[in-house]
Amino acid sequence: MADHIVVDPEFGAKLIQSPEVLALMTVLGHEVKLVSEATAPVERGDFRSSFRVIIRVKRGGAVVRVFSFDPGGGAAKIELGTKYTPAHRTMTKALAYVARRRT
């Protein structure tokens, strides 16, 4: 069994700009957001309620971003950890979970 496929560049460019790919990426982005919210550590709930999904269509194709808009700046500390607290990696784990479910 082949471990990779070769796609015609013209076909690939059309594919990543298709409404179907945009729809799939949108669903995946929202799944990552939901898993992040479900697994985020909660003290006050600011981090858990700060996840956002932004969808853009650029010339190259669909771009979906999942991020935490935590005005207190706690997102980086929770995701990456600090000198005093270990990294929770909420979004990293959520992305990995969604990717595993889809393969």
Short description:
The protein is an alpha+beta fold and 103 residues long. A hairpin with a 2-residue loop joins β1 and β2 (61-68).
Question: Any overview of this molecule?
Answer:
The protein is an alpha+beta fold. The chain has one domain. It has helices at residues 9-16, 19-39, 74-80, 90-102, and strands spanning 51-58, 61-68. A two-stranded antiparallel ribbon has the order 1-2. Helix 2 (19-39) crosses helix 4. The mean pLDDT is 86.
Radius of gyration: 17 Å
The arrangement of helices and strands along the chain is HHEEHH
Instruction: Please work out how many helical segments DSSP would assign.
Output: 4
Identify the overall geometry: elongated
Termini gap? 16 Å
Q: In percent, how helical is the residue content?
A: 40-55%
User: Which range does the strand content fall in?
Assistant: 15-25%
- The chain-level mean pLDDT equals 86
**Total domain modules:** 1
Structural class: alpha+beta
Low-confidence parts lasting 5 or more residues at pLDDT below 50?
A: none
Strand order of the largest sheet: 1-2
The main β sheet shows up as: 2 strands, antiparallel
Tally of DSSP β-strands: 2
Task: Based on the model shown, name its key terms.
alpha+beta; 16% strand; single chain; elongated; 103 residues; two-stranded antiparallel sheet
